[in-house]
Amino acid sequence: MWKYALASLSLVSSLAFAGPKVEVETTLGAFTIELNEEKAPVTVANFLKYVNDGSYVGTQFHRVIPGFMAQGGGFDEKMNTLPTYSPIKNEANNGLQNKTASIAMARTNDPNSATRQFFINLTDNNFLDYGQRPPGYAVFGTVTDGFDVIQKMASKPTHSLGRYNDVPVEPIIITQIAVVK
């Protein structure tokens, strides 16, 4: 009886902390991200602005490095930079880690410069965490379904394109993205 009570309690507690989910369809397949509003409220709100305004549709994963990460959200299929909202505060000290399948915000050397670009970790990249390399890179969710699509991205050939390295030869495009109702 206790075993069932604990299992029920575990299920209820995991449901209580479930954040919004976003389904992303790409030219290689679909994946789902669960966002952590509790630990990264500013970052999640920022990401959802771009999801809800539709501006991630038609963007590409423009930097894919096997054994590291897949980065996207900032360029269209022709590598044109897309407009952004104002940069956000870095929430890397939220306790979330750059583990395999986590999603984090890309930024410049300025810790508070993240706008629309994000990356999905292909492996544990703890050297990107706040405790390892302050100011760190803010994790704000996890790919909960379809991580094989991200892994497939890393198997595609890349090249240099102008000043950009590790660009997939055949663009990997976000064709649809939406909050799961």
UniProtKB/TrEMBL annotation:
Function statement: PPIases accelerate the folding of proteins. It catalyzes the cis-trans isomerization of proline imidic peptide bonds in oligopeptides.
Gene3D superfamilies: Cyclophilin-like (2.40.100.10)
Example of a GO MF term: peptidyl-prolyl cis-trans isomerase activity
GO biological process, one term: protein folding
PPIase cyclophilin-type domain location: 25-179
Keywords carried by this UniProt record: Isomerase, Rotamase, Signal
Classification via Pfam families: Pro_isomerase
Family to which this protein belongs: Belongs to the cyclophilin-type PPIase family.
Annotated catalysed reactions: [protein]-peptidylproline (omega=180) = [protein]-peptidylproline (omega=0)
InterPro entries: Cyclophilin-like_dom_sf, Cyclophilin-type_PPIase_CS, Cyclophilin-type_PPIase_dom, E_coli_cyclophilin_A-like
EC number: 5.2.1.8
Protein name in UniProt: Peptidyl-prolyl cis-trans isomerase
Signal sequence, renumbered to the chain: 1-18
